[in-house]
YhgE/Pip domain-containing protein (Clostridium senegalense), 716 residues
Amino acid sequence: MKDALKVFKRDLKSITKNPVALLIVAGVCILPSLYAWVNIKASWDPYETTSTFPVAVVNKDKGANFLNKDLNIGNDVIDNLKGNDKLGWKFVNSKEAEMGVVDGTYYAMIEIPEDFTEDLTSLTSDNPIKPKVKYKVNTKLNPVATSISNAAKGSLVNEITTNFISTVNEEVFNELNILGNNAEKNKTDILTLKKAIISVNKNMDSITGLLEGVDSSAKNLGDFLTDFRATLPSITDSLSGIQDSTQSTGNIMQDTEKSFNNTIDNLQLSLNESKASIDRIYDLAERINSNRSSNDSKRNVSQISRDINTLSNSISSDIKFLDEVNKAQPNQAISNNITYLNNAENALSEAKGNVENLQNSMSSTGEINDSAMLTTINSIKNVNTHISQAVSDFDSNARPALNTITNSFVSITDDACKLLETSKGLVPQMDNLLKSGAEGSELAAKISTDLKEDLLSFKDVINQLSNKLEKINDNDIIGIISVMQGSSSLMGDFISSPFELKEEPVFHVPNYGSAMTPIYSVLALWVGALILVSILKTEPPEFEGGANIRVRERHFGKLMTFVLLAVFQGAIVTLGNKLLLDVYIVNFPLMLAFGIVTSIAFTTIVFTLVSVLGNIGKDIAIVFMVIQLAGCGGTYPIQVDPKFFRVLQPFFPFTYAVGGFREAVAGPLMSSVIVDFVILIIYTILFLLIGFFFKEPLHNKVRSFEDSFKKSRVAE
């Protein structure tokens, strides 16, 4: 160790006493940082400037008529895109768009055809036609441009879907709103009359008992009958007005019945599409299981995960609609169908978890786990069973129940009309009885007896009216009115977008440059180690007092010099990231520590390779860098890399160096931090041992090989 320190001290004196050497060493320490800083700054936030990314949009839509309203979904989409600055939308004609895509003026084009709205609104008819939109992209211009243009396609599809669903439902709720307004005007009168008739029926015995004692209270009875008779004209007028309004409401109900039936048809179409989707998911899972060696397995598993999420959203929307209907008009068949759909949704949640487990297994092993694959297929099969039950139950039970509810809208109004007509006939008879009772107190006894008998004769009629009214639930009426009074535009918007996505990032990194800092910093440190072995000698020269120093001590003495410079390189890179570029860093001391440890580990590896193997070691270090860059998961997820890299990734120093920098940038997870530090230290120790055991045995052979190479005069 003392001899190694002699070599180290000799290098430090040579550097500090020679200004030129000091300048070159300073440049060697700073140069790798420039590589990292330039690349980080260049990729700081490329996806924030896509507003200048040109995408041509052509609208040929001629529109259509829907529910007596002229619609043009194409124009609506264009208006919305004009306010969308995420991409550089260019609204041009078809010829200009076609030529622009070919010559590179536009990266992509989207064309809405003439019959687009007509085909789209046909989805609510008996013969739906699926509309088509033309999409072209020039993949030659730039590989990333294809991904950005695909985002343009997604934006357009979202605008079309939202506009169409919102418009259709807005018209349906407009029709329902007319019904709700008319019912609201007469709600108070209807409920007042209902309570009055029910009260008379319940107090019939009390009334007849009062008439039996009228002989002793004739005068008071006359006053009471006169006052009571005075209220009859207002009741008659109220009944007539209510009856007219009720008949008008019934006509509106019949018009609305057709619109509500169309909504039910859309629900059935959604359920059938859910059944078709789960069938496709199951077939895709079976193909993955039967062809495990396919390079598309990972992508197909990801597709299954996305399809399950989409299917879960669709079923949640269906459940929400049925829940609203069931709250307004409770029905056992609808409740049963909601239960079937809830079972399907729970099964989807279980299947989603199994797919995630399968993805995690594939990520860690690079292969499909038999148990995870079988569990995934069985859970998808279970989802298929539940959705099939839900669709079958909807067709046989829930759909008829919904039809019954629709029909009851009109029948309830008819019953109300008949009830009011009967009530109108009762009022004149009661008026005649009261008139007779008021003619004189001398006839009060006789009249009270007649009135009692007449009331008893009408007891069955009043009882019948009361029983019919009691069957009409106040809460049901209020519930129906409340639904019909909702804002049609608000309801249309709600159904087109029934939920808001709340994003909650985990370990949030605000910009792309900060996210790329780990891979660029790690790569710069490896490049820095290569620069050190390229500019500085790995073998110390002869110096006074060093004649008897062994090869091994010379090796470690020189390594000390390289490690010291590596510490400066690591510190400069990390300090510049923070102070010059203002990279987002949650834990800067941790980044500084990883920068220094990584630089020491990389320098030890590269120096040992070059010191022990000479120029061959340099070649190995360069090849090792290239392979690590492609296979460490620094830029793209390792799961999308070829299997060769997925297998080797856990053995690359880059993997743990990049992981450590990421912990510092986004927020540390201590278990990951410890693993990254330990692995880097293990690599350092491993190459120290390689130098210790192989430097001396290979020294003469490598020197002989290097001398032969120099004699060729093609190297310095």
